[in-house]
Amino acid sequence: MVQLSFTLPMPHSKVAEGAAAQLAGKMGMDPALVVHARPMGPDFTFFVVYGRVSHLVDTDKVEVVERDYPLLTPKEANAAIKRALRRRLVVVGGCIGTDAHTVGIDAILNIKGFAGEKGLEYYRELKVVNLGAQVSVPQLVEAARAEKADAVLVSQVVTQRDAHLLNTREMSAAFREAYPSDKRPLLVVGGPRFDETMAGELGVDRVFSRGTTPGEVASYLVHRLTAAPQKGSA
């Protein structure tokens, strides 16, 4: 049994409920049972439908990016940075292009953090430069060079016409043009519509999707930047 929720552009009525059941049936649910229907204003209705499906899932063909580094506490991360770098690890972040949604980058960088975890500003051995929203790619590259950034974090929420993919490719190309390969900062992007398996295709070192916590990002940065002598070797 599976549960499906969706909205139809129809006022709430018996006809709308029948249309919802019909749509679910066409998507392979048999039988499809409408268990919840609620008006969403005068012209839309929200539905929850239960039903049985006969499709099979082959888990051997599922492609995911498994975490290949240990999760560190802030104390452990600070100690690793101090021991390996003997200086603060510099992180520059922001939202590029026309994206004005800073909730994602702020959740990772700001000290208040996300999901009960403090953001990267909380880490004593991290220097965090948050450029905010609508940062152009040249501005991002300039800031990274000026701050001698070890890592660049980019958040993208706006996804119309695959803007997040276009912006990321433009960003990665600009950094490769501006830096020798052994000096380029680590490039990390994140957002709710990114596919974590696309890092290589997008020209970045890591892609994080929805639900990522500051601790996961901090642990990744420490793993990559304290385990190897060179920056950004993809």
Automatic annotation (TrEMBL):
Protein name as it appears in the record: Lysine 2,3-aminomutase
Q: Which InterPro entries has this protein been placed in?
A: Cobalamin-bd, Cobalamin-bd_sf, KamE_N, KamE_N_sf
Q: Which SUPFAM superfamilies match?
A: Cobalamin (vitamin B12)-binding domain (SSF52242), D-lysine 5,6-aminomutase beta subunit KamE, N-terminal domain (SSF117778)
Q: Where is the B12-binding domain?
A: 88-232
Q: Which residues form a coiled coil?
A: none
Q: Which residues form the signal peptide?
A: none
GO MF annotation: an example:
protein dimerization activity
The record's annotation in Gene3D superfamilies points to: Cobalamin-binding domain, D-lysine 5,6-aminomutase beta subunit KamE, N-terminal domain
Give a Pfam family name.
OAM_dimer
